[in-house]
Queue: 4 jobs
Job 1
Amino acid sequence: MLVIAMPLLVALASPLDVDANEGFHEVAVLELWSVYGHFTDENGRRLGVSATFFNGKYLFVSGAGNFVTFSDDEKKASRGDYKLIIPLVSPVSHTADRLEERFGDNTLRKTDTGAYRLSMKVGRHRLSLELKPQKKPLPMGGAGRTEWEGRRSEGFTVPRLEAVGTADLGEGKARRLKGTANLMHSWANAMEEDHDLFIINLDDGT
């Protein structure tokens, strides 16, 4: 029994190969690419940004969509919108061997230089970012996979990216942004429950 179990134990303990898993996973029931960031605009106003690309399957139906949220530190308020995409109605393209997701006009891709480019229009909100990694990707939870109650989730995070770009918070004008961000990519064999997530970027670079 020990000999039979060892390969499985090694597989579960081996860290996730991030480079081989940046792209789309066809077998996943739910897959998410999310960017969370803390920014300052050209007037010194601080903004929090959350932008997500998701792809999901429910029974025999599959769909995709985008969420974007802006938190205005000065106004102590947040605003945002979402866009649901049915593949038969709007073009959605995935790439398995690299990160290049296109949901209608919204795109997220990794360039040949290793930087990430995000372009998103959701309702009246717009976001365009270039994100340059300052830290190596980290498998989530150490090994990059967790299992509980029959649900298997895998993924990784790029914990710190230097980010610049523009954003329109639905006001009809673009703000120039500069700050730090985090990119998370996860996929699972079942839909996930709601949860809270906190991203903290410290001044010492952690």
Job 2
Amino acid sequence: MSANPNLAQFYEEVKTKGVRLTNQWKMKFNFGDDPSGVLSSVNDRLEGESVTIWAEGSQIPGRTQNVVELPYQGYNMGIPSHAEMTTGIPLNFRGQRNMQYKHAFEDWMDTMSNLDFAATGGDGARVEPALGGSAVAGGGFKEVPNVDLEITLMMPNMVDELESYVLKGIFPTTIGEIELTNDASEIAAYNVDFRYQYWYRKEATS
């Protein structure tokens, strides 16, 4: 039977190395070059500020190392090939009273979709989506605005920053439903799935 654990050593190691709690983070959308102004309304709705208070959950992006199998003397030997970054991330949001952020994500989709969901009639009401003329000539695709999402890990005091993960070229792909019920009075919530091109880690500046 092994000896009893050394509690003093345990506490000292926890104190020295610390632990990463799942709620020590914040996030912010950063809008880059937008020459056509297609995301001006989205930027206004998101206010260019941290949206952490409305985000229930997120993820730190991951990476997968691919392996090539080579037969050698009766064994399959694994050789590392290329590493792949994850390119999708789900975000869970609490619903605001005026649904400001959900509308921002819907408008964001409108700006990118080849269906003109933003089309309006003479009375200003939305009309049936149609293939819009705002698609990029020759390519058939609209402009994809340059937006990054920065997820920052915080120190335990929730003031100092440890490091950030920057997700480049992010855009929404799915906006989830909001469940309505008379059974309970709870904060409405919905999920938004995003696609991005790549990510990198950025150390905090002192």
Job 3
Amino acid sequence: MPHTLPAGPQPPSASRSGRETQRFSESGDRLVAGCIPIRLKPDTPAPEGIEVLLITSRSGKGFVFPKGGWEQDEVVQKAARRETVEEAGVRGDLELPAIGTFSFVSSKYTTVTCTAYMYALMVTEILEEWPEKDARTRGWHSIEDAHRMLRHDWMRRCLETWVNAHGWNDVVQKIEGKGEEGKDGGKETPGDQLAAIQPTNGNGN
């Protein structure tokens, strides 16, 4: 059964930058971490009452989940929370275990393969100010609408995996196979298999 990891310290005032402390896998994949931020509408049970927070990409070309580089001085859960605060301006409790890992090719660096460690975040605080407020917009959507709106196929698969893990079969039937095929392709690893993945602390050499 899923359980939660309570929210951590106060959020940062600015986003981290630079790649000097970036983590890479033994095979050279850039490691990133992120969240599906969710909340439950009052007086409406799940899954009907679940709302998913989406943000715009920096380029403004579509909607995404918050995610970014996992750095050497932090555990993966901290990285996922930090990126979610920096990009989406929300804090909350992480649902454990992780949803899984999802591989994709970076749209910014087309020769770089990334592996994303993704978590569900039960939102408990919505910030008025956050580091990337001026670079992105955010909005709450139903599971079905979020699935349709997501820019990347791997993010749709991530949402499908989370819905499947909760056994919401009616929602699964509505969303699976309905998203447009993305360009990033990739593969996923369920959360209960993450222990077998061993990241390295350097530049992949």
Job 4
Amino acid sequence: MIRYLDPPPRRATSARHALALAFVFLVLAFAARGQTVRPQPAIDFETSGMVRAIAVQADGRVVIGGVFKTVNGVARNHLARFNADGSLDAWNPNLAGDSVNALAVIGGTVYAGGVFEMVGSASRRNLAAIDAATGTATSWNPSPDGEVNALATGSGVLYAGGVFANIGGAARARLAAVSLGSGTATSWNPAPNGDVFALATGSGVV
């Protein structure tokens, strides 16, 4: 039985979060697919703005992205990471822009999509690959000309969805597959006629 409760009062300037519940839903989703998820710590934290994306690295560290400028009172512009024990990591890509809306982790790289212009001292527009060890932007640079709202991983590609018209050196309306090696758009071009806000992959389809 599911009980629906009234939502808590909204806070105007900050938000408290607990990631434990999010991982409960992840465990249930993966269990339904016959997969397992490693246990995660309960992470209680406060940000100065909305959290819009969560991704988990293979080592158990948790990356969050959103509209915030601080996490637990510490400066973190739109992107932050927690250690496996729940403490705030020193990793700090320091994005300049409005938001991070989507995250994906592939190996030692964190991919972030949203509305931004810089990652640290590197010019990166709306989509970037960030070294998971150093927090600096890699040379990968598809540079979509509009907001990125969703990311999903594929075989040798990263699928990106949003409000853009061009990405990876090609005209791609709102949805594209970008090579993980070169950062250029592949020939895949579904061209949806509306903005894209979510993506998932499986069984050879997007």
